[in-house]
Design brief:
Elements lengths: L1 H7 L6 H5 L9 H11 L4 H14 L2 H24 L5 H6 L1 H6 L10
Helix pairs in contact: 3-4, 3-5, 4-5
Length: about 110
Amino acid sequence: MLSWSGIENGTPVDIGELGEGRAPDHPWSAELHAFASAAVALDDDLLARTRDSLVTVADVAVAIDAAAVVANFEMMTRLADGTGARMPDEAIHARGALITAMRMADVTSRR
């Protein structure tokens, strides 16, 4: 979604760079990465600091959009976990480069 919307808006996003917390051609990349990481870290103080930082460099609307994206992904993950859905092995292998670039394998499930 991010790659597609970046292209559509004339701001292409390098997923690998974003996964490492850097994307020099994308505005507020460091703040977006910090906010998204804090949103799933269960640390309210860290979340407040990263949200405030994002609002400072961008604006409230950007922070609201970022929070909505995080919430949507959290919802989809919980729905999939709740139903017992699993991604087929073929799909995991096909997405291997993206999984590696975004460091998804480093994320620990809360189950």
